Each structure stands twice: as structure tokens, then as C-alpha cells.
Automatic annotation (TrEMBL):
PANTHER family: DNA HELICASE B, DNA2/NAM7 HELICASE FAMILY MEMBER
ATP-binding among keywords: yes
GO MF, one example: ATP binding
UniProt-listed SMART domains: AAA (SM00382), HhH1 (SM00278)
InterPro entries: AAA+_ATPase (IPR003593), Coronavir_polyprotein_1ab (IPR050534), Hlx-hairpin-Hlx_DNA-bd_motif (IPR003583), P-loop_NTPase (IPR027417), RecD2-like_HHH (IPR029493), RecD2_N_OB (IPR055446), RuvA_2-like (IPR010994), UvrD-like_helicase_C (IPR027785)
SUPFAM superfamilies registered for this protein in UniProt: P-loop containing nucleoside triphosphate hydrolases, RuvA domain 2-like
Domain AAA+ ATPase: 340-478
UniProt keyword terms in alphabetical order: ATP-binding, Nucleotide-binding
Protein name per UniProt: AAA family ATPase
Amino acid sequence: MAEIEIVGSIQRIRFAANDSLFKIATMRVSEVREGNIVKNSFGDVVFKGEMSLIPQNEYIIRGEFINDEKYGPQYQYISSKRRDPIEGMSREDFRQFLTDISPKGVLVNAQFDDPRPIFQEHRVKELMAIKGIGPVSADKLINAYEEQKDYSEAYVAFGKWGFNPNMTRKLVRHVHSVEGAIELLNKDPYEFMDVPGVGFKTIDEKALNFGIQSNDPRRVHAFVKDYFDKLAMDGSSWTKEIDLMKYLRQEVFDCDVEETLQWINDSDEFVAYEVDYVRRVATKRLYNTEKSIAKNLLRLLHSENKFEYKERDKIIDRIQEEQGWKYSDEQTEAINMMLDKNVSMLQGLAGTGKSTALNAVIKVLQENDYQVATCALSGKAADNLTQLTGKRGQTIHRLLGIGDPFGGFEHEENPLPVDVVILDEVSMVNDSLFEALVNALGDGTKFIMVGDIAQLDSIGVGVMRDIISSKIVPTVSLTKIHRQAQDSAIITHSLQYRMGKMPEVSPKDSWTMLGNKNDLGYVFEDSAEEEKLNTDAYRIFAQALNKYDVSNIQILTQTVSGCTRINDLAQTIANPKSPTKNQYKVKANSADAYILREGDKVLNTSNNYRATAAENHQMYRPIFNGNTGIIESIDLEFNSKGGISHVEAIIDFDGVGKVFLRDKELETIQLGYAMTVHKSQGSTIPCVIVVLPFHYMLNNRELLYTALTRASELCFLLTSTKSLKSTVKKTGETVHRSNLGLLLKREELIAPKNVE
């Protein structure tokens, strides 16, 4: 097929996709540099493909001829570059370019005499400082500038490696320069594995196909980095040097282990050290994070304690009288510890009274005029704090004041203006977020941690286990199930499961409620017919909607694919199609397509730091993986052919507020009637439906315990006898290697102590 190269500009855009740069456009041709132009029957030169050409601007455009059976002669877009390259534009021409692309460009010109450096260096914060330009506008301006760069050399260089134009542009933007990206590609393509959404696997596949040897030092070094990334995701921050070397010999053919070990020892990215005559290796980032946590916890622990409580005993006596029962000796010990110690940890199984003990502490603090802030990782957990304690809970991110994705947290260098911070569900919190929280606590701030170590572990390197095992931080572990909890089958059965025991339950108990509170129901299916469990969940969900609002019902299962099937069923009854409700088909052209509809319960599946507030699009309101909410509105814009060209949605997220999302941002929003047990951690929901088919890898007693204890009022467990017994037999507990306990002990030896 013949290629052409023309100089021209867009005459008319016939079609523009809303979720990509794909366009079909007729071109105004001013010069033919290569090949012969073929026009269609209307005399038009038609191009199609992913292109970002600004009307009224001339480009040098390459295309490949296609004689389409339906639409006639046209050209497949290959590449383009501005006839007047944006990289070499004069100040005056660049100012005119900004005026052409957007009215916001006029605001930029009014603020800066020469705006070129602002765009060349991606100084987004300076754009956002201009009145009238918020995060969305700033992103659009930067993207418009980036799309006008001459990518032709990059397309050729990266194309040889198998990168498509979209990925090429993404990698070039990471480096901020076509020349720099090409240079980095040739020097070490594995440097691109740090680009969000790329990773080692993507780069490695292309590098090996391009001819890089499996034992090339660049690949081996990247392999080591990926190994530590996976190690951290599994909850460990270090490995034995000997284990790492053994792994490399097994996984990388003819690996130069000695060279790799020398590189690790010389690298700024790793730290090698000895503990009990064993050489350990950790990433410097994680090691420093854990060291920072240790120092901050000890700083808080040994600060001067100025807390005084008037009528403390009277307040606690009044609470006991109001609730109609007295605190156990364990709870009394926990209450005293939390009130008296600067830093403390309260941990215990479900039903041991952690929340009621914490409630007493909060009331004593508040009645003595101390400012208390309560927080948790998830929005739902933060809302639970509000319901349990009467004190408004926040997510950790919101408490720390994350206002934009560039400057971190507002309170990183600016201590929180409160006397006490209470962190619930501490077992869920990973090291990096925990570090940010303790960094934000000023000297003298009381820090109370509450959690359940029997739940599933956090995703990433956690902190709770090491804090407890170090025995540096004062800790009380509640072990006795309080009287009210003993009446709950949710509590008693979940605790038996967690200990690897089977309660007295069998298929004859199907479709009946157990316990003095009638709060736990079982549905058993034959192990060969577990596909019926989804239909059973549908039936129970439909009945639960008669008593509970949809936001107070949660279906839980082990896998994402299982959630997808159940979500489709749940949507048909909870929020069926209606002429009064707008809806949007996400990933419409793929096999993974699904419908989002106004009124749907949804789950966010990826961190989005650039999401904005619904009431003010100039203000960031980030959302995080695991946030749940309800779709309040969906607004659609259509093109001339009736296709959707643009979509906007407002979602009210639990513990976050109303958030504005648009176009591709909605691809991280999934239906949330059903979610995985891992995603539900930290939440307490009135009504929970647990669907537990057989799964060899995921089913274990920790998962079952976590799932059942999400329910505060009613729980239904749908399974087979075989699956339930195999789940209870298996434990998912693994050995997590963390430095935090070691560093707490070491830092304690040298930490300055306050002499009372």
C-alpha cells in the first residue's frame, strides 16, 4: 500500500471518540511532499486514526492509503508534526497557540509574559494558581501542549520495540522530552517500568523480543527491583541475602550473581545490613519509612504528658449506668491505658468490646474539652466510627488534608491542630500511609490505635503486628467475649471459624436464622451445584431490600469475576433500567462492558488523585481504591451521529463526599453491590451476604472470619459443606518480614525520655 506525506490542516472533523484520540477528518492539503493524493467521490481527502491536530494549524502528516469497501478511498493516520514545531516556537507564536487552544490560554498569557517554561517543565501548580484555572483546566492545557510535540522520531524508535503510539506518548511524557525518552530507551528501557500502568512485565516482554539477553545486567537489576515490589505487596520489607541470591540463580539463566550483589551494595536504592549474623537486604525507601515510623512513635511516646481529667471516674460510672452493664477488667485496663499513655494499642477479636471501651475514652476526653480526631483507612470505616462513637470520623487521607496530587499532604510539615488522634482498623494501614499520619502528629498529641490482628492482612507492608510484638508501645489485648456478643451467632461462629473449628451447623440449617439474636443465616448447596449460590444471593438480596437501604447491604465473595456476575444480577433488582435514569456503558466496545446507572451503588478500584469536588471543579477531592458510593447523576453529550462524545458523573462517596468524574475516569468505577472480602476490610455493614464457593487458593479461615465480622446486624453465609470445611481447615497466615519491630527496639535504646 502507498504512503503519502502532505502539508495540511483539518478541514472538518466527521467523528471524534470520547475515550481516545481517534478521529475521522477531512484534510485541507496545501502541499504534497510524497506520493499521490487519492480523493473520495465527494472530492475529500479523508484521514482516520488517533491524532491530535488543532484546526487552523498546519502539520506535516503521513498516512497509508486504504480503499474501504463501504466508505471509499481514505488514509490511515501514521504520524504528524507541526509545520512550526512547538518546541522551537517564539514567545509570540506560543502565546498565540495558547489563545487558539482554549479561552484558559488567554488567562495564562495574562499571567506570564513568556509561558513556555511553564509548559516545558510541567509546572502545573503555577497554572492552578491562576484565578479561573483549576486542576481539570490545567491538565487540559498541559495535555494540549504535549499533543503538539513532534513525536515522529519517538514513534519510529519505540515502534521498533513494539510500543504503540499511545504508549509511546505516555513514555515520552514521563521524560518530558522526545530526545530524552529515546536516549533512555537506548540506554536502559527498564527505567520505564516505574511509569504508572507500565511495570516490569510490559517492558521485559518487549526488551526480550528486541534482543536484550535474559542475563543482561540492566534486566537483572530491574528483575531485582520487581522482586522487592512483589515482596512488599505480599507484606514483607526485607529478605535474606542468601534467599535473594538463590532466587536469582533459579529464575535468571546464567545470572552474574556476584555482579548483582555488588550492584545492590553500591546502589542508593537498597540497604544491606546484618541482624543476628544474617545478612538482610531491603529497599532504602521501605527501610527509611520504617525507621521514620519508629522514631515518630517513640517521639510521641516519650513526649511530656499534660493530660488531666476532671471527674474521670464519675463520667465512666455514668456511662456504665446508661448502658446497663459494667466494663470488664480487661476493658477497664484498656480505658485507663488509652487515657494515661501517650501512645497505645487496643487490639482484640470481634465481640470483645473494643468499640465500647473506645467510646468511654472519647467521652472522657470530650467532657474535658480535648479536641479529638478519629480516622480510618476506608470511607465506610470512617462512617462506622461516627455511628459507634458519635464523633465524626474521617478517612486518613482527608484528615491529613490531601488537596492536590503534587504537594503531598497538607499536614506533613504542619501538625494536626488536635489533642488526640484515634486510628481505627490499624491492621489495614500500610507503612507509607502510617508514616504520613505519625509525621503529622505534634509533640504531646495522644495517639490511640485500635484493630483486630485476626483479620486479613493489609495490602502491602503493615505495621500492627510489629508494633505489638515489639512490646515498646503499651498494648491491651481484649480476649473475653462480652455478654451481649455471646447472643450473636455472627460473633460466636466467626470466632470458632477463626480458631479452625466448625460450629454445630449442617445443611439441615439452610434458610434458617441462628443465635439468640437470629442474626446469622446459612444456605447450603451441594458441592456439585455451587453455581446456585449466585441465585440464592439474588433471592436474599431482594428480601433484604425490603428492610435495608441498598447502601447498608453488601454481598461479599472471594474473586473479582465472582463479583461481576453477582453485580449484574443485583443491579436488575436494586436499580433496574428506567426512562427517568441516565446510564452509561463503560468499555462499550469490549467484552468487559457493563452499565453504570444513576442510583447505582459503586466501588472505586484505583487511586485517583485528580478527581475534583462536585461543587467546585477547581478543588481536588481524591478518591482511593476501595471507596464506595452512590451515583447521583450522569450527564451525556452526543455527537452528530448519536454516539456519546462526553460523559460526566457525580458520585457521593462514603466518607469522602460528592466527586465529579468524567470520561475515562469512569473506567475505574465498578458496580459495588458485590465486592471481594479484601475490599471490604475495615467496613461494618448492617446486612452482609457472604457467597463462598470453593476456591483452592483464596479460601481460608482468615477470609471467612473477616467476611462474617463485616456484618453488624444480619449475616448470611452461602456455601457448600465441602467448601466450608476446607475453608476452616486452611489458614492464610504467612510470615511477614518487617524491620519495624527491630527498629523500635533499637531506637528505644537511644530515644530521649521525658523525665516526669
